[in-house]
């Protein structure tokens, strides 16, 4: 991941202890560091890693009003005149600082990463692949349930069409026809009422991913921490107490804009009233964007600051386990290739000199799970292809029947 990405920057003043004066400039946040550049000289006055921060506080005194302090090792940095507000900057900095401490890129993990063996790198890579394939399988499973609901609805329509056909036959029969009354008295085909499978499945629907986020509603300058939860049927925004702020069903989302790998906006348009729009910022957003891209492929838009990372995602030089964009819709042909690649990888593992027996055993287990997931996903895709063919055939048949019955009704009238 590019550590020079600028997630956010704010105009502010920094207290330069050497000259005992305030210097105006911009405070910038990257995925791993905090920087301050002076406006007049362009000099980089502050540059330290997030993992080296001990404390972030909102402070004030008689001389320094509404300031933000960052304790970096033994040095205390003072920032004031923060725009748009001190609270906004504090919430965002604290979020990325805490996530940095919790992530594997924290202070202790950073040193350990230098000593990571090839086996650990491969394990991390394959674990990431397994997670992406599991997420894809969840989405496909939900899509399969929707296809089943559509088929049940079409079957009910066909039953209703049969009843309508018998009634039209009765109306078309002459009054002296001796069997006409029997048609009227024939019991209608009654099918057991279908339960509300959609609502039930929604209640039982599993969570694909849940990440902490900083929420901005519409164009408000105030931000607050919360959570973003992705389901196969949509997404949900909630506060820190897990109280739902807003839920977007898939059909409700009109567009998703990716401003940076860490910031997106979700919008639902309305006619005659303001749009419902939320802007979400998170250190974990790179994990959610591939899933959003898979679910909302026709509605997601990558803005200028994110276009470079789309190219990086498609570049063959980018590792699967480390790329923040490595995900997509799985196709049957690609799954077959993946299984062949998995087999080749398993052979190559035996040739790695730096892989221990325990690591090789763990990698074999992950490869076995990946192969099973690939088979299951391919089978589900083939089943959905057959279901789509059946749905298309049923819709065509229903359309012909409706046209035919319309012509018969016109003759009766």
From TrEMBL:
SUPFAM superfamilies: SNARE fusion complex (SSF58038). Keywords: Coiled coil, Cytoplasm, Membrane, Repeat. Its main location: cytoplasm. Transmembrane segments: none annotated. GO terms for molecular function: SNAP receptor activity; syntaxin binding. Gene3D superfamilies: 1.20.5.110, Pleckstrin-homology domain (PH domain)/Phosphotyrosine-binding domain (PTB). Residues 349-387 form a coiled coil. This is Synaptosomal-associated protein 47. It comes from Rissa tridactyla (Black-legged kittiwake). The lineage of its organism: Eukaryota, Metazoa, Chordata, Craniata, Vertebrata.
């Amino acid at each position: 991941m590019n550590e020079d990405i600028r997630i956010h920057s704010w105009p502010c003043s920094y207290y330069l202890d050497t000259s005992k004066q305030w210097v105006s400039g911009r405070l910038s946040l990257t995925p791993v560091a905090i920087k301050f550049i002076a406006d007049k000289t362009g000099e980089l006055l502050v540059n330290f890693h997030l993992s080296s921060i001990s404390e972030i506080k909102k402070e004030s005194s008689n001389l320094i009003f509404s300031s933000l302090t960052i304790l970096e090792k033994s040095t205390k940095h003072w920032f004031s005149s923060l725009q748009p507000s001190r609270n906004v900057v504090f919430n965002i900095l604290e979020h990325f600082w805490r996530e940095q401490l919790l992530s594997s890129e924290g202070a202790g993990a950073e040193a350990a990463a230098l000593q990571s063996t090839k086996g650990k790198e491969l394990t991390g890579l394959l674990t990431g692949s397994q997670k992406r394939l599991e997420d894809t399988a969840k989405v496909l499973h939900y899509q399969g349930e929707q296809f089943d609901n559509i088929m049940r609805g079409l079957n009910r329509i066909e039953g209703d069409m049969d009843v309508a056909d018998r009634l039209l036959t009765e109306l078309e029969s002459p009054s002296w026809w001796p069997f006409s009354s029997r048609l009227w008295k024939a019991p209608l085909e009654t099918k057991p009422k279908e339960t509300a499978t959609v609502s039930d499945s929604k209640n039982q629907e599993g969570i694909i991913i849940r990440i902490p986020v900083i929420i901005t509603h519409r164009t408000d300058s105030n931000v607050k921490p919360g959570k973003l939860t992705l389901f196969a049927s949509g997404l949900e925004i909630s506060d820190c107490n897990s109280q739902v702020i807003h839920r977007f069903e898939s059909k409700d989302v009109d567009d998703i804009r990716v401003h940076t790998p860490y910031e997106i906006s979700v919008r639902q348009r309305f006619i005659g009233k303001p749009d419902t729009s939320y802007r979400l910022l998170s250190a974990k957003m790179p994990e959610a964007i591939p899933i959003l891209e898979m679910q909302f492929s026709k509605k997601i838009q990558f803005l200028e600051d994110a276009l470079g990372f789309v190219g990086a995602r498609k570049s063959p030089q980018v590792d699967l386990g480390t790329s923040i964009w490595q995900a997509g819709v799985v196709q049957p042909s690609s799954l077959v290739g993946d299984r062949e690649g998995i087999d080749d990888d398993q052979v190559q593992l035996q040739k790695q000199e730096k892989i221990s027996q325990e690591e090789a055993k763990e990698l074999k287990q992950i490869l076995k799970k990946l192969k099973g997931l690939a088979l299951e996903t391919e089978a589900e895709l083939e089943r959905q292809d057959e279901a789509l063919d059946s749905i298309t055939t049923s819709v065509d048949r229903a359309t012909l029947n409706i046209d035919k019955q319309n012509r018969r009704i016109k003759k009766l009238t």
